[in-house]
Design brief:
Helices cover 68% and strands 2% of the residues. It is mainly alpha-helical. Strands 1-3-2 form a 3-stranded mixed beta sheet, with no helix packed on it.
Length: 260
């Protein structure tokens, strides 16, 4: 097993970023529009005063902001070829989605994230992500999307296969461009952004129906473009694309994550 030579990390990252930008202008434009859609939502809120009567909305706002930060950080990693690290960040958005949904009917979730009374995840308190997914009817997301993201996040044949080329047995210490891995990151980000948008809409509706309607109208075209792109990816690659550098010894995108 050999290590690829890394004479200049900055040079490698710049090269990968240039190839990525040249190869994926459409995807980068879509993700930029999605992030701007979030910015428009936050600008529509303008100000927000916390009190005990709006704790659910406070939780949604904080988790939406945290998700925006994760997506903004992930796109920078994706552009430079750090795909596994980008997926790890995007996994937190899926977790935020589970918590947002659980906050609707489960006071413990709110007490955990706003008052530190409980910890997440904690299966003894029925606050694991699997338990949240069951309660909120999101097991398909848990078993498919979240399982895949967790498999990449944790040390596994899949996550380590991302940095090792099975054909040459070379370890990629420096980043490199991979079309399929980049598209997988894009798919996760677009899916997560659309899922979390539900709670941006709920939050705006609680504050002002006028603002909610205005934001929804502005966001509608981006929603359509995102949905069309996801459908196109499904047609071309199926439910989950397979990496061109995957380990042939069981390195499957569909592998299930260890449950928390």
């Amino acid at each position: 097993m050999t290590l690829n030579r890394t004479p200049s990390l900055v040079a490698f990252e710049s090269q990968v970023k240039k190839v990525t930008r040249d190869s994926h202008q459409k995807e980068i434009e879509l993700i930029t529009n999605i992030l701007n859609m979030y910015i428009d939502g936050f600008n529509s809120i303008s100000s927000f005063t916390y009190n005990r009567d709006n704790e659910k909305e406070t939780a949604w706002l904080l988790l939406a902001a945290r998700s925006f930060h994760s997506m903004r950080g992930a796109i920078q990693l994706m552009l430079m070829g750090y795909y596994g690290q980008a997926i790890s960040l995007l996994r937190t958005v899926t977790e935020n989605f589970f918590i947002c949904h659980d906050c609707i009917e489960n006071p413990k979730a709110i007490e955990a994230i706003l008052h530190n009374k409980y910890k997440i995840p904690d299966s003894k308190q029925k606050l694991s992500f699997r338990q949240m997914a069951i309660r909120t009817g999101n097991m398909k997301i848990y078993e498919n999307d979240y399982a895949h993201q967790s498999e990449v996040t944790h040390p596994s044949a899949l996550s380590l296969g991302i940095i090792r080329d099975p054909k040459t047995n070379e370890i990629n210490v420096a980043p490199r461009y991979d079309k399929i891995l980049f598209l997988d990151c894009c798919e996760i980000m677009v899916r997560n952004a659309l899922m979390m948008n539900e709670f941006m809409a709920r939050l705006l509706s609680k504050l002002s129906e006028t603002k909610a309607t205005s934001w929804a109208e502005k966001a509608s075209q981006t929603h359509k473009e995102a949905s069309d792109w996801l459908n196109k990816m499904k047609e071309e690659y199926g439910e989950k694309p397979e990496s061109s550098n995957k380990n042939q010894e069981g390195n499957q995108w569909e592998a299930k994550a260890e449950r928390t």
